[in-house]
Design a protein that fits this description.
By secondary structure, the protein is of the alpha+beta class. The chain has helices at 2-6, 39-53, 99-106, 134-141, 146-154, 168-181; strands spanning 61-67, 74-80, 83-84, 89-94, 109-116, 121-131, 194-208, 216-223, 228-234. Strand 8 (216-223) and strand 9 (228-234) form a beta hairpin.
Length: 236
């Protein structure tokens, strides 16, 4: 047994050096009576609490996962949730060259996963995706720092920067060229390949950590026929 353990680079990590047992979650519980009929309202309630009361660092951080068809290969990355409306959860990115762009072209579905350690809560979202209009994307684009807007135009996201061709210098030259292109312009148009993507949920799960890994889990499922959300408690 000890030989097997020594061969592992990581084995049963824990926050304490005195035990290999995982932390216990004891801060809260979740019951059906605490849930709003709408997952959007419930998410807003949890998000506002995480941000304003629990002071979770960047609670808008979310793991955005996509899958390519026909291979089924899955990819994930961390992005920021930028909007929540009555249709879904909105992120912004490059939709021309990025891996996620390629994935959603072949398979227009995605998931989001939020983890808020300070309150021992998770939220998972699964659903179809849809692009926002140019006008909607422009409104958010205008709020970005100028450097971020220049960067959006300059970077062919996820494309290889070959060291033998200059590596990062190639990117920085593109940035200089874009700066020159928009010199003196405060209003920079949103690139046609860049913008918002909405995850329209078919499932939203709210997870509250509990002791002994007996967590409270509730899943909202959209009933297309009844045009309403159905709420179920799940086993931990």
């Amino acid at each position: 047994m000890s030989a097997q353990k020594e061969s592992k680079l990581i084995f049963a990590p824990a926050s304490s050096q005195t035990t290999q047992q995982a932390d216990q979650y004891t801060k809260n519980s979740l019951s059906r009576t605490q849930l709003h009929p709408s997952p959007f309202t419930q998410f807003h309630t949890w998000f506002t609490h995480a941000r304003d009361e629990a002071q979770v660092h960047q609670p808008e951080t979310t793991c955005f996962s996509t899958a390519s068809l026909p291979s089924g290969s899955v990819s994930s990355r961390y992005v920021y949730l930028k909007e929540l409306d009555d249709r879904g959860f909105v992120i912004y990115s490059n939709w021309a060259t990025s891996r996620k762009a390629s994935d959603v072209r072949s398979n227009p579905r995605a998931s989001l996963a939020f983890w808020w350690h300070e309150v021992e809560r998770q939220v998972r979202v699964e659903g179809k995706v849809e692009r926002l209009s140019e006008g909607e994307s422009q409104r958010y684009f205008d709020l970005r720092a100028r450097g971020s807007r220049i960067g959006a135009w300059s970077s062919e996201q996820s494309c290889v920067l070959r060291e033998e061709e200059g590596g990062r210098e190639v990117l920085e030259k593109r940035v200089r060229d874009t700066e020159e292109r928009f010199e003196g312009m405060e209003e920079i148009p949103v690139p046609e390949f860049w913008g918002g993507l909405r995850v329209v949920p078919e499932m939203v799960e709210f997870w509250q950590g509990r002791e002994s890994r007996l967590h409270d889990r509730f899943r909202y499922l959209w009933d297309e026929e009844g045009k309403e959300w159905r709420i179920e408690r799940l086993s931990p």
